[in-house]
Every structure is written in C-alpha cells, then in structure tokens.
User: Fold these one by one.
Assistant:
Number 1:
Amino acid sequence: MGKRWSGVFPAMTTQFREDQSLDAASTGRHIEAMVASGVGGVVVCGSLGENQAMEPGEKVEVVRTAVRAAAGKVPVVAGIAETSTAKAVRAARDFAEVGAAGFMIMPPMVYRPDADEADAFFRKVASATDLPWMLYNNPIAYTVDVTPARLVEFADVRNLVAVKESSADPRRIVEIRLLLGDRFALFAGVDDLIVESSIHGIDGWVAGSGIAFPAENQRLWDLLKAGAWDEARALYRWFSPLMKLDTYPKFVQYIKLMVQEAGLGAEWVREPRRPLVGEERERILAVIRRGIENRPGA
C-alpha cells in the first residue's frame, strides 16, 4: 500500500470566484503553498472543500488540479461525500483515473444509516479501487459513529490504512491503540484538540484552520511530534482562537475569510452558503486580525 500516511494533511478549501464558478487556478496555488510548508499530504473535496455543493465533473477537476499542484511531492487524498453508494463508487473510480493517491471516505450523506448499513457502504466504496483510504469518523456532524469496537471489524479491509478521528474524544485514540495497535494510522480531526490528541500518540492531523497559517501549523505539528511541550503550548495558545473557528456550523465561511485575510485565497463560497455580513463578519474578522497582528515572529 506504499508509505504509511503521516504528518499534516490539510483539508483544503475549494476556491470559487465571486460568481460562484470554480477557480481551479487559485485552488492549485493554495495547494502549492501548503506543499511548500512541509505537509505530508493534502485532502481535497472534503467538508471544508464544499464537496456537496459541486457537480461531479467539478470534483474531478479539483482532484486533477491538486494532483498537478502537488507534483508528486505528497499524496493527494480525495474526499468522497455522496448520498448513494453508487455515486460514491463512481467518484472513487473517477478520482483514481485523474491521479488521486487515495480517498477520505465519509458515511452516506443525508440518510442516517445504521451501523450495518454504514459498514456495507464503507466496504463497497473501498472495493471500488485498490487505492488506500481514510475512514472519516465524525458522529457529531454525520451521525454515524464508528466506535473503537466497531473499528475492529474493519481490520480485514486491506486498503483501509487510516482513520480521521473527529468524535471530539481524544480518549478514543488510546482505545483504538489498545484494540488494534498500529493497524491504522490515526489522524486527529478536531483542530483545537490537537495537543491532547498528540499526547495520546497520533500519526497525523487533518488540519482545517492551519491552511491560513501553513508555517505555524507545520511548526506546531513538529513541536508536538518532538515532545517540545512548552514551546508547543505557547504556539497553541496563540493558535487556539483561530482553531476554534473550525468548530462552528459556518466553519467554511470562517476559514475562507481567514484564508483571504492571510493572502492565500478568497472568501467566496457556493450557495446555500453565503459570505459573512454585518456583526458576525466583524466579530470573526476581529478574531482573525488579532491573530495576524500577534502572529509569532510578526
């Protein structure tokens, strides 16, 4: 299955123009900046990438753009978030054709499957190609909860290589290790739990807020992996208010605005999302600008 996935795998935004059309060139430039910062891989077409607001052909174009921008330096992991098993299988095959290194598979969208249905969905999509994939466990957002005990049942799925654990309970990392050892690479999926997750021993981090501050994001990861806790805590205290912007329903708008303020992209989103206005915009901008003003080394 190739090299074990590890390190920072930023969840990239999909860049749009003000008229909501896809801006592949801007998307590619942002990915190039992330690769230059030292990340271990990139994730496109995830939740932050507004997967469900795009047409199938647009998703393929984003993956193709990412593969081109990554230039073979890091794996491109394509998010799969579909309403049916057939659509998810088709997406996996389409993404593989344009060079995706693997997938991050979310449970079925809209319909709330029971555990057995979710199991069957993950297995069928996984079997669509031989490429490695990451199971995205986010019971808060997607209702499906692949608990550590349930995860044991996936140990036989050969190309399941990683888990993005976003249950907001870092204790699960320990539970998974006790049950499965190092069978899966474990990735933290909640930005403002990265310190707690690192203490328990993780392989990587699917980072959201850090796409606006790639150098600091990578620095924090490096400090955590080195066990340089005092330095890591100091950097995290600066980062924490920015990271919390990844934990709200409008996290896409918040992070895109942060990316824009950092000079790495634009805030435009695709409807039904709309750009921030009024008091909410000013409040979020104040958090972002305070972070930029106090940026380490600024």
Note: Strands lie at 7-8, 42-44, 76-80, 102-105, 133-137, 160-165, 185-188, 204-205.
Number 2:
Amino acid sequence: MAFDRRAVHDELERVRIEFRQLLESATHVDLVRASERTRWTNEQLLFHMLFGCLLVRPLLLVFALLGRLPLSASRLFARLLDAATGPFDLVN
C-alpha cells in the first residue's frame, strides 16, 4: 500500500481552512454552548479538533518508524499507549 503524501497534505489543508472558517464565524455564545452528544462546550471541542490535527504529522512519523521496526516494537508501543489510557482519561 503506497502512502499518498499529496492526499494527506490536501486533506490537512482542507481541514485547516475549514477550522479557520469555523473559528472566525463563531460568536462567544456559540463557543460557550454545550456540544451535542458530548460533555464539552463547542470551544473545548474545537480545541480538541485542533489538538488532533496538530498530532497527525508527528504520529505519521511514529507509525512510519514503527512500520520499519520488528513487530515486538509495535507491541511494546501499544502496551505503552494502553498504560497511558487511565491517566489520559482522568486529565481529559
């Protein structure tokens, strides 16, 4: 399976533009309103969306690296992520 860098770049650019439009069009009342089906406000939800987009590029590098290492390295990484779930949920 080939990695299509152009498609990823185009998608990230589209998301960046859409995020900017959402942010610029939102009023204070919109941002403090509760999001549907979450316990977050719209502002918190937008922050998490931005945070997720910022993490995509570094994660792609991590996954590319893990793809070149032995399977045991991926399993160890998965165990580390599983161990971090509890603290992450607590903070989140």
Note: The mean pLDDT is 88.
Number 3:
Amino acid sequence: MRDVRLMSGDSVSLLRQTVPRFRLDALLHQQLTRPGMRLALPPSGRPQTLPEPIFPQHPELLGEENVDEEAHQAAIAGRRRWSAPLVLRAMRGWLFPYIKSRVLPGDFHPIIAYLFTEWKCNLDCHYCWAFDNRVKGMTEDTAKRAIDWLHDDTVCRVLALMGGEPLLRPHFVHKVIYYAAKKGFWVYLPTNGRLLRPDVIDRIADAGVAVVNLAVDCVDEKPGLPKALNPIRPYFDYLVRKQYRYGYCVFFNINICRNNLEDVKQLTEIAHENGIATDYHINETPMLEEGHFQHYEDNETFIRRDDWPRVDELIDWLCEKNRQGYKMVNSVQRLQEMKRFMRGELREWGCRAGQNSIIIRVDGTLAPCFPMYSATYDWGVIEHPKFDVRQLREMKRSCEPQCFSTLNHNLAYCYKASRAIRWVFRQALRGFQGVTGSFD
C-alpha cells in the first residue's frame, strides 16, 4: 500500500489510504461544530409563495431555430457584443453594490449571496461533500423571504443559486430566477447539466438568468468524476448558441483532480473553440468533518504528493493559455497560487466572507462561506444576521490558508479600491465588451 500526501492543517500530513476528516485547526473545528448552537428561522405568519412566472415573456426567442450564428462566431473571435441594457444589468448587480459597500457605514454589506435551493444531487462526484440526499430543498417561503430581505435590507444584487443540483426542481428554480430578476438581481445558476434540457434552458433564460456555470470535470466519465461533457453535449450546444439571443453567458467550472489533468486541457480548448470562459479550482478535501461524505477512503480524485509535478505542468499550461488571451475567471497570479495551496503553503489573503459574501442554507440559516455550510455556529438567519467581524477575523486565521475560493479571492483582491477602479476604467475604455472577470 502506497503512502500519499494530502493537504491537512498548516502543513502537509503523511497519510495512508484515508483522507483526514477535516482540515481546520482542531480547536476551531470544535468551536464551529458544537451541537445545538444554530437557531432555526422563525416563521413569519402565513407562509409566503413565489409568483407564478409568465412564460414565455419572449416567445420570439423560443426554439432551436432562433440562434445567432454570426454572434457565435464573433464570440469565438473574442468580439461578443453586449447591449446597453445588459451592461447596465451587470453594473447594477456588481458595480453599484460594490460602491455602496465601500461608502456605507458598517461591515456587513453582502455583494453576492449564495442561495442553496437544494442540498440534494443527482450525481456523486467523489470529491464533493456538498450534498446530502436526505435533506429537503428550500421552501418558497424561505426563498421569497431571503430575496426580499437581500433586496430591502442589504446592498446585495447578485444571487447565486446553489446545491447540490439546483435543477432537481426546475419549476422551483424557474420561479426563483423569475422573482429575483424582476427585483433587479443578477442571477447566477451553476449546474452539472444533466437536467439542462432545451425547454429548461428556454425557461431559465426567459426568466432572466445572467450566467450559467456549467460544472464539468472531464470529457467522458471517469472513476469518481461523473460530471462529463459528452453525456450533455446536445444540451451544451443549445445552451451556448441560445445565449446570444437571450443575453446570458456561459462558462465551464472545472475542478482539477489527480485523474483528470488531460481532460482539463481538452475542456479548456473546447471552451476556447466555443468562445466561453473557464474557471478552475484545485481539488480540496473537506474543511469540516462531513458525516454524510462517503469517500474519505481510497479517493481517486484527491491530489497526492507524487502528483504535484504533473499538476504544476498543467498550471503552467493554463497560465500560458491565459496569457494568449483565453477567457478565464482566474488570473495568472491566482493560478500560480494553486501550487502553493497544494503544498499547504498558502497564507492569509484577506477573505471578505461574512461581510461581502454570504451563504443562505436551505433552511434559511446563514453562514459566511461555502466550506462553513455544515458548521453549527450561529451566524443568524435571513432577516436577522449575526456576523461579528472579530469572530470572523479570528476564524479566518485558521481557515483562510485552507481555502481556495475564486470568488472570495476576487472580492478580497478588488477591495483595494485602486485595483477595482483600474479594472473598471480598463473595461470602460473597451465599452464594457469582452470582460473576463480577471482582475490582474
């Protein structure tokens, strides 16, 4: 039996077969997971419901024949054009709330909220602890109250639907997107694509989705990696070609594992050939102990020490493609930092979770970030948040070096105002066309 090395704590620990049950400092883990700490969302009288979406709002856009091949070819060449209303929608979602968060008093000004409509999934990726099929999905009452609270009491105008797999209940997701978009939210939908049929694409696009994050880890299925492109290729082709009519955008979300390194390159080229962006993550073991996680032992996806040279080569290849103009959410600097993270050498990076990004669980309780979903610490509920900067700061001394969140890193990076101003000015000179999301 071969020894393997995996990230754990502040250093790299020698292990046999099994993954550590958690990566946090043991004392902090105990503080965050004591039973009975988290309080439930109190009822608000008569349960609220989401309005039934009007569909179709744009009947002229329905059907496979309504594609724009000219716009598709322009996007492949890096010349996708965005209309003024779509540019304004993005600014209302991101730029205006960012400015408000910088000038308003206080520390709690979420720019993006992750609304976990599901904690169930139709696939079992062996690295993923973020689902438990025993947990019921979010109710309409919780979803509507969450959106209303974000709209009325915070600056937040970016809503990311999360899971599990959000499209397990496509009608529910349609209602959430429709209601949030009508309230002025820039709505982001991640999915593994298995349920993304053309009729579902038309419904979520007609409702006003802004971005579809298509999570794929390989071209064909691999052991422990069922999120593959080829099983959903017809859906992908329809999704990409309809984006120019409806005005949303698509990108690949790719998790770098020990057994998909060549697939990462192939998916990068496929994305480039289709004029869409990519977002990369380096495989992470669970930060908190997850009692429902079934793949602690003999996990074929987690990166081992003897994989480091091959992963380094892949990262260098991605950096070169980035420099060549491939659309990537990750900056070259952030890609290079994957090497340090993989070796347990990442340090504090100024995370803004619990201040400018928040998690809303299926039951309406709050958490600062995705890795803390299973924590029982009481950060409050929608309508009554309890985030404390001192507690967050102390917690992050331990958890920041264990976390490689792209979104929270971008939030932290742009919280130096000069960087954000420089980036916005650069995009303004280009008429806000072809924005990649990378801040360097």
Note: The two ends are 44 Å apart (CA to CA).
Number 4:
Amino acid sequence: MFWTGELIARNAPIRRRASPPPWELPHLAKGTAAYLGLAIGDALGATVEFLTPGEIRHQHGSHREISGGGWLRLKAGQVTDDTTMSLALGESILAKGCVDATAAAEAFDAWMRGKPVDIGNTVRRNLIQFRKTGNPEAPASEHDAGNGAAMRVLPVALACYGRPPETAVFASRAQAHVTHHNALSDAACETLVFMVTDFLAGRDADAVQRERAAELVRRHPVFAYDRKRRDNPSGYVVETIQAVFQAFFANASFEDCLVDVVNRGGDADTTGAIAGMLAGARYGLDAIPRRWLRALDPATHQACERQAAALLQLAGG
C-alpha cells in the first residue's frame, strides 16, 4: 500500500543525506527526460487545446509537430502554465530546501503577478485568496477537482526520489492544496509522484500499472480508464488521468504516447504535459524525438535540465 493517512509534520523538510551526486546515478537522465517530456507535451498539446478530435483532423491531420499557434497564439516551442508553474514550484523547493506550502504559494503568486500566458480559474481564485489571508492552504472543496495541481507535480516527485512514501504524500499535498484542496486531485497527484519515482528507479510499466494505476482505481473507481476511449478530455482531473493512462499504457514509445493523447483534443496541453512527464521517466532521453527537443524554447529547455539535476541532487545529496 503506498497511500498513508499519517502525514509528517507540516512543512517538514526533505533533509539532505549522503549519497553519490546525481550525475553518477542512472536516474538523472530519466529525471531530465521527465522534465523535458512535460514541456514538450505542453508545447505540442497547446496547439490543439480545446479542439475536438474531428477539428484536429480537419485542421492538422494527425497533429505531431511543435508548431505553436492555437487559441493562445503561441510561438513554436513556447509552453503554458503547466510548465511554468512547475518551474516556479521547483525554484521554491530549491530555495527552501524542502517542499513548503507557504514557499510554494508565494512562488505561484509571483508567477501570477508576472502575467503568464494562461492561468486556470481555480488557480487564480485560490491564489487571490492566499493574497488576502496569507493562508497557503485553500479550503477543501469538492468543486476544485481540476488538473491544475497534477500538471505541476513533477518537481515534488524529483525532490522526493528515494524518500519514504509518507514524505512524498505530504509534499504532494503541501503544493497541491495551495490551489486544489480536493481528494480526487490529491489521489491523482500522489499516483503520478509514485509512478515517476518508480520509473526513475527502473521499474517496468506493467508493474507500475498493476500497483499504481490499479490502486488509484481501486480506491477511487471514478478513475477507471478501461471502459472507453477518452476523447476531448476536460480540465476535470479524472478525465485528464483517464486520457493520459489510456494513451500511456496503450503505446510503446514516447512519441506514440504523446501523439495519441494530444490528438484526443480537449485540455491537450495538460494531458500532453502529464503524459510527457510519465513517458520521459519511462523511456529516457534517447526516446525523445530530436526534432521536438530542437523545437522547444531554448530557455525552457535549459531550465528543465537544470532543475531536474538540482532537484535530484536535493533528494540524494
């Protein structure tokens, strides 16, 4: 069982411990691939966000190139809030030396003040509430089951690599509850954290599917993803995870997984980002198409690489 109801003390640090530096360990490449995969999936999916599969076929055929455009009129290789919020969270973790709710809330607030290209309604509402109250934990709400916390959870997974499960659960909820205090969001975030760390440790996809995805569905049957193809997934975290899992477990390459999920349309930047995160951790750097790496915004590329190494060093150094 990888869930736990016994969370460690609030704002408890992820303390440094002695181990070889991450560049000497095999998981660094996979951690880097996970971060680049998140950004690539975000940039790829943003072009077709909010389109239906039929509209995508009419406009693009099979959408498989990082070309920009979309409703946000992005430059080719530009990313959205999925990646930029992740990077903001990662910087807060590195500055604090742990996953800290207040530090995360302040980082997200600064990110919002920077006028990002996109921001979700739940994120905006609860960050405005943080400004008013100073409380980094949003009120629990059954209406806040969006995918905004899940899309940015990768820095937590990297910082918690090799840590006890209860540490990862606490850290996941500390960042998630700033904007999404919801049981379904929590369950999705925690599952993604454990899946990423499993892949960094070299576990195979069949075992991860049996132990992580299946456990999520057992605890929350609404996440069942084997009933039908999830096209046009909304920002509801359940639909997001269903689409991601269907594409991720049905395909055997990084590229096929991402092309599958973004061509389902809907909230395609986020399904692309989460699928890219998982596929990067699963397949590694060599599996990411070179053309996609070249198309990604250079500054984003560098930031993802730097943070992946730094967060893994925090986890193990």
Note: The chain has 14 helices and no strands.
